[in-house]
């Protein structure tokens, strides 16, 4: 991934027309399909499960970036891998003591492994995982709902992660999710991010993505 890539989030799509949403991602320049999995416990609401991923998988060759916003993510990894996920990201907050083991489990399924942090969680909590992870996902809103405003301070985490990567010679990609729209896109791209997740602004056509 030499260019910044776009990962539109199905959480902001019309749930009654997900096949059409996947087509819109392809036609609209999306590089990855971001799929938020919410369990009603780690975050208040419930969204997509394995059966949805499995049903959408034949519709596109784009990678599926499955973001597990769930408690006990270790219980979900193998089933989402079998359902068609290409990247599987779990939350540091849900696995504070087992992150490296979960990364290894995802890799053993032949998938890219990501780890995410909420706005209030520091980059410091990731220090033991950075050399093993493929993707670090910075949440720039509180996870669980689409259409929120980006928290600008979260972009400082992206800059910090970019410096750490350079200083230590690591290879993870930095992703950002939450509140990316036409007004915030430039500052997000300039922060040093590699992967941009956008939901509402992508699907309503206002994002202005030109990469």
Describe the structure.
28% of the residues lie in helices and 19% in strands. Strands 1-8-7-6-5-4-3-2 form an eight-stranded parallel sheet. The chain has helices at 18-27, 50-56, 77-83, 99-108, 154-168, 185-190, 200-203; strands at 5-8, 33-38, 64-69, 87-91, 112-117, 135-139, 173-177, 195-198. The protein is globular. The longest helix is centred in the C-terminal third of the chain and has 15 residues, at 154-168. The chain contains seven helices and eight strands; from the N terminus they run βαβαβαβαββαβαβα.
Question: How would you concisely characterize the structure shown here?
Answer:
By secondary structure, this protein is of the alpha/beta class. Helix content is 28%, strand content 19%.
Please tag this protein with its features:
8 strands; 7 helices; 211 residues; eight-stranded parallel sheet; alpha/beta
Order of helical and strand elements: EHEHEHEHEEHEHEH
* Tally of helical segments: 7
DSSP strand content: 15-25%
- N→C terminal distance: 13 Å
Strand line-up of the largest beta sheet = 1-8-7-6-5-4-3-2
Shape: globular
- Going by helix content, strand content and strand pairing, the class is alpha/beta
Helical content band: 25-40%
Major pleated sheet: 8 strands, parallel
Mean pLDDT: 93
Rounded to the nearest angstrom, the radius of gyration is 16 Å
Give the beta-strand count: 8
Which blocks of ≥5 consecutive residues have pLDDT under 50?
Answer: none
């Amino acid at each position: 991934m030499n260019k910044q890539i776009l990962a539109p989030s199905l959480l902001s799509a019309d749930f009654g027309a997900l096949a059409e949403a996947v087509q819109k991602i392809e036609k609209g320049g999306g590089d990855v399909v971001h799929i938020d999995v919410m369990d009603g416990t780690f975050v208040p609401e419930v969204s997509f499960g394995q059966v949805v991923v499995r049903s959408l998988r034949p519709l596109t060759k784009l990678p599926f970036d499955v973001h597990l916003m769930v408690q006990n993510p270790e219980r979900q990894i193998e089933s989402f891998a079998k359902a068609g996920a290409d990247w599987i990201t779990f939350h540091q907050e849900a696995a504070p003591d087992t992150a490296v083991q979960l990364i290894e489990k995802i890799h053993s399924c032949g998938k890219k492994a990501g780890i995410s942090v909420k706005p209030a969680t520091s980059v410091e909590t990731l220090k033991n995982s950075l050399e093993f992870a493929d993707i670090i996902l910075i949440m720039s809103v509180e996870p669980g709902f689409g259409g929120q405003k980006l928290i600008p301070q979260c972009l400082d985490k992206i800059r910090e992660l970019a410096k750490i990567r350079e200083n230590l010679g690591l290879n993870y990609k930095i992703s950002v999710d939450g509140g990316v729209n036409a007004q915030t896109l430039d500052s997000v791209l300039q922060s040093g991010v590699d992967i941009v997740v956008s939901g509402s602004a992508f699907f309503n056509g206002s994002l202005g993505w030109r990469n």
